[in-house]
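Entry for 3,4-dihydroxyphenylalanine complex. Fields follow.
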Amino acid sequence: MREKLQELRELAINSINNVIELTELENLRVKYLGKKGELTQVLKGMGKLSEEERPVIGQVANEIRVEIEEAMNKVKENLKNKTLTEKLTKEKIDITVTNRVKKLGHRHPLLATIEELEDLFISMGFKVLPGPEIENVKNNFDDLNSPDNHPSRDLSDTFYITEDILLRTHTSPVQIRAMKEYGAPLRMVSAGRTFRFDDVDDTHSPMFHQIEGLVVDEKISMANLKYTLDVFIKELFGKDMKTRYRPHHFPFTEPSAEVDVTCLSCRGEGCPVCNYTGWSMELLGCGMVHPQVLENCGIDSEKYTGFAFGMGVDRITMVKYGLKDIRLLFDNDNRFLEQF
Ligand code: DAH
């Protein structure tokens, strides 16, 4: 029995030392030490041994088991190290290669302005609504009370897609959508892109941005309009800002006004930027919602009144950051955008 065990030991250790793959090692473990393995089989035969022999052989068998296990662990370690070394030599990292991570874009100043404006109006209880850039003629002109012969309806001023569908020329149609959907009372703003058949120059672009506002409730008056816009202008540009309301005409408001604010360059002193008037001109249009517009949207104009306003976001952004050319806003040049 003792010889048989020694033979087994030698065979096992030999095969273990010749192993070159981890899977092979596992096979050998099963072969010798597994439940039906050879060493186990030998130990099972121990019942036939005499009382004196049994503990001696038992001890030898155990020593052999330990020896086989140790040999296996050693080979296993070696194999693992070898694979790791191979991997490390193969996968060399070239630290001299330049970092080609693509530069992310930069938050656009127009978006920053829009969000700032929206936040201001949210704090005054307005809700922010979206509106489509592709509109129908009814929302963009008819229901806003714009007469059939209004020049802005002309093919030379507006991008028509079909006779009834166009690229919205202002954000005012969102007023119509909001009143039809929510009725009165209502406080909403809506910002987005607008389109007009304009040639590009330093202050014009066929694509520009507006933010629209509308309040409809009982007993809304011009005083509410003036207070709201004055608070808003002061919050946006500073407490020392003054406003000036000049009578104007819009088909959807009556009365209507255009608003000028203190020139930001000279704070009202008079400078070349404001033509020495002390005012930034035509920052926004506003007025009391025309009763016909309320009626067009199913709102009782005897019970409710409202005010509305619309302003150019590009214009506000340019005034705010002192930009001279609107094209800078649409060139998407990171060297420009990164400055904000
Ligand atoms: N929609 C006008 C424009 O694009 C701006 C405007 C003026 C909007 C008066 C209004 C308003 O809501 O009441 O020129």
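NOTE: The radius of gyration is 42 Å.
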